[in-house]
């Protein structure tokens, strides 16, 4: 098979069908072929019947053949439709499975952030929801009709070769040439241009803004309703215009097509007529060949291409995405077990890092060590690289220069799964599972009493029962406030510590808690994480000061490192930031004797 054919999107669709469901695909292809050849067989049978009538031969066999083929033609159609519908559904499901796998399996995250992959992801992600074309189950019927016509036309031309080889070839070539002449109108060739993808992404975004609840508040408040509608409509109109220009019939090619087809038909029908007139073609054969000469016309460009193109583009996108995402998200795992580590220390050794596709270095020669069992707080301005450090420590990315060592072993030499099992985190943008409280606290499962204890430590013991789904719109469900969610995320990390995690990353873990809540919880967090290596990222100096050591990060480098007392004595950055915040807060005690900070 030539490379050009196997690289075509429609070829990819053809080969995906048997991978999605071999039995249905074989049946679909077999019936496709049958539907394609039946009209030519009917033409032959009609010819035989007319010939028998002319000669006065017995009619029962030819009549039975005509009747049989006719009935078959009627029966196979709905059967084929039903098979196509199911095969289309299964193929779509198969593709979604592949896409889900390709997105979720890679151990890294680079594949989800690579701009080169996002456009394919947009084409592939929602392709069966009818947003970019009909669902595959419906397209299968259009594709089948188009292919049946093509096969039927070719079969008719082959039968016509029985009359004269040149007649069959001439008509087949003439009708096939329409595909070539009108190819621009047949295929939405602009489908994958950057312009189409950009318009598609924009309209997709505007649509999601409009229909997803989280955007509802700001859209209304900032008067963006019209803006969203206008953006959605204008981008979709742009898409439709691009589609229209691409599918519009080109006048000149149309003229050429008509001339070629009319010319070829004139020659063949003139020859048939003169053969019949001079008696070299009997009536029966004339019926067969005239019918097939007309039948060859179904080779002509029809509805096949657009249906095929629309269905094949996302298939090709998924198949392209699979290896690219695997590559972009790859992080080779080492073989050494991380069980029990860190025992001595975690060391960032001269770490440099920049996000894929960006020239900017987020971290530059970052060097710090954290003795196992101690806590390190990281403070620094927005964008300094604090969250990035946390991501590197989870090995979601690898450093570009230097390395992270756990007890002297580079993270890249450790078995990825076993290392991640040692780490737990409250990320700045932690996940809010639309699942029961139990699964939110222990996604990998834990005994209920451990979950309850973790929730109690995070001050979330009475938020909801373990079976309550934390989302709106489910039976027995409730949504939580920002701060309540943060307590659940904390409980998740505390539960993981109880289950044996040896390193905990807390990235702004109390940023959404009220001041009193924070003061209450922080002591409990400290107690729970005692003996566990802890990295605490926070802008709140009241929490930071409790850490064993504090590191001030600026522009990806350590600018100060020491205990709270040491850094205060140093009178540098930390001292300034601490004083600045302290001026705005003052310690206060409520009627129950709990001390907390209040803004003055
Ligand atoms: N996925 C990403 N791709 C490209 N650049 C990124 C990505 N995530 C973060 N950055 C950039 O890296 C830099 C450091 O970001 P990071 O999130 O580590 O900052 P931070 O110190 O946690 O800030 P904050 O205090 O606001 O949380 C920023 O300039 C940011 O724009
Ligand atoms: Mg951050």
CATH topology of the largest domain: ABC transporter transmembrane region fold
N- and C-termini, Cα separation: 78 Å
Taken from the alpha-carbon principal axes, the silhouette is: elongated
What portion of residues belong to β-strands?
A: 5-15%
- Poorly predicted segments: none
CATH architecture of the largest domain: Up-down Bundle
Question: CATH top level of the largest domain?
Answer: Mainly Alpha
CATH fourth-tier homologous superfamily of the largest domain: ABC transporter type 1, transmembrane domain
Q: Tell me the strand order in the biggest sheet.
A: 6-7-8-3-9-10
Portion of residues in helices?
55-70%
Instruction: Tell me the number of structural domains.
Output: 3
Mean pLDDT equals 87
Beta strands, count = 12
Report on the architecture of this protein.
This protein is α/β, with parallel strands linked by helices. It folds into three domains: 3-182 and 250-328, ABC transporter type 1, transmembrane domain (ABC transporter transmembrane region fold), CATH 1.20.1560; 189-248; 345-599, 3-Layer(aba) Sandwich (Rossmann fold). It has helices spanning 3-6, 9-20, 22-55, 60-104, 110-113, 115-125, 136-161, 165-181, 183-186, 194-211, 216-221, 225-247, 251-277, 283-295, 304-328, 386-393, 416-422, 437-441, 448-457, 482-498, 515-528, 541-544, 564-570, 573-584; strands at residues 345-353, 363-371, 375-379, 401-406, 409-410, 423-426, 503-507, 533-537, 549-554, 557-562, 585-589, 595-599. It binds adenosine-5'-triphosphate and magnesium ion. The site of magnesium ion has 4 residues, from helix 16.
